[in-house]
């Protein structure tokens, strides 16, 4: 199956610093990628849709200046958590849909990044 | 925004037993998908069922979809300890966005 990677898998940072998380589709091109956040024992909440070559679209309540998204190529999207605070500590997961024969197929998820802000 | 509700929230069964979990949603969908998540890991796609399908099988998994009731069920037969995980349903409307349910945590006791 298709593979989506994330880097880093874990990151611990001090409050006020910025953290960049990378999401790569390893064997297919993804014009669209999604970023989710998951708090402990909760479900995934969609944060934003990353669009290659254009601005990301953010879900209601997600600060675009706080969570910067760049989709620089067909295989890479980055999420930068700016001026991180302890409440930003969470599990961040990206996903990329892959079409098969023009039909929607399935989404492939990265392994997630555990962010801890001290 | 989330639109799926799952029940039960948690399920504990003996190895070899079947596990059934349900998912309800609110709006029309294009397809519905089930995912598994092991603790602290990413999601693994299990099965996708389209809105014009009623039942689908994959190995020990059986998924049903009732669009009139806006509900789906996932059955895991002959459960194994390795099936211990959280299971999420996710609906897709008319784009690629997934809207996840709250999830069911399944514990399979050896």
Features:
heterodimer; A: 118 residues; mainly beta; globular; B: 110 residues; 5-stranded antiparallel β-sheet; 11 strands; 0% helix; 56% strand
Structure description:
The complex is a heterodimer of chains A (118) and B (110). Chain A has 118 residues and is mainly β. Chain A has strands spanning 4-7, 10-13, 19-25, 32-38, 44-51, 57-58, 67-73, 76-81, 90-100, 103-109, 113-117. In chain A, the strands form two sheets. In chain A, strands 2, 4, 5, 6, 9, 10 and 11 form a seven-stranded mixed sheet that branches. In chain A, strands 1-3-8-7 form a four-stranded antiparallel sheet, with no helix packed on it. Chain A is globular and about 45 Å long. By secondary structure, chain B is mainly β. In chain B, strands 2, 4, 5, 9, 10 and 11 form a six-stranded mixed sheet that branches. In chain B, strands 1-3-8-7-6 form a five-stranded antiparallel sheet, with no helix packed on it. The mean pLDDT of chain B is 91. In chain B, β4 and β5 form a beta hairpin. In chain B, 0% of the residues lie in helices and 56% in strands. Chain B is globular, with a radius of gyration of 13 Å. Chains A and B meet through β5, β9 and β10 of A and β4, β5 and β10 of B.
Percent of residues of chain A in beta strands?
Answer: over 45%
SSE-based structural type of chain B: mainly beta
If you average the pLDDT of chain B, what whole number results?
91
Please write the string of helix (H) and strand (E) elements of chain B.
EEEEEEEEEEE
State the low-pLDDT regions of chain A, or none.
none
Number of helices of chain A: 0
Give the overall pLDDT of chain A as a whole number: 91
Question: Segments of chain B where pLDDT lies below 50 for 5+ residues?
Answer: none
Write down the oligomeric state: heterodimer
Largest interface: A-B, 26 and 23 residues
Shape, principal axes of CA atoms of chain B: globular
Total strand count of chain B, please? 11
Per DSSP, the total helix count of chain B is 0
**Structural class of the helices, strands and pairings of chain A?**
mainly beta
Describe the sheet with the most strands of chain A: 7 strands, mixed
- Approximate helicity band of chain A: under 10%
**Overall geometric form of chain A:** globular
Main β-sheet description of chain B: 6 strands, mixed
Question: How many beta-strand runs of chain A?
Answer: 11
Q: In percent, how much strand structure appears in the residues of chain B?
A: over 45%
């Amino acid at each position: 199956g298709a593979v989506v990677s994330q880097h880093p898998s874990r990151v611990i940072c001090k409050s006020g610093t910025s953290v960049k998380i990378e999401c790569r589709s390893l064997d297919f091109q993804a014009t669209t990628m999604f970023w989710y956040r998951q708090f402990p024992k909760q479900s995934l909440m969609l944060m934003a849709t990353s669009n290659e070559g254009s601005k990301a679209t953010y879900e209601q309540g997600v600060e675009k200046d706080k969570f910067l998204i760049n989709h620089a190529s067909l295989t890479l999207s980055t999420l930068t958590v700016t001026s991180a605070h302890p409440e930003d500590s969470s599990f961040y997961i990206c996903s990329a849909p892959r079409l098969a024969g023009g039909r929607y197929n399935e989404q492939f998820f990265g392994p997630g990044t555990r962010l801890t802000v001290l | 925004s989330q639109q799926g509700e799952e029940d039960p929230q948690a399920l504990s069964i003996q190895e070899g037993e079947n596990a059934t979990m349900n998912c309800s949603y609110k709006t029309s969908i294009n397809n519905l998908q089930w995912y598994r998540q092991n603790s602290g890991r990413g999601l693994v796609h299990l099965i996708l069922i389209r809105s014009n399908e009623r039942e689908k099988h994959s190995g020990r998994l059986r998924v049903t979809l009732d669009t009139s009731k806006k509900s789906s069920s996932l059955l895991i037969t002959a459960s194994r300890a390795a099936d211990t995980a959280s299971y999420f349903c996710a609906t897709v409307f008319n784009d690629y966005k997934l809207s996840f349910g709250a999830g069911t945590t399944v514990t399979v006791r050896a």
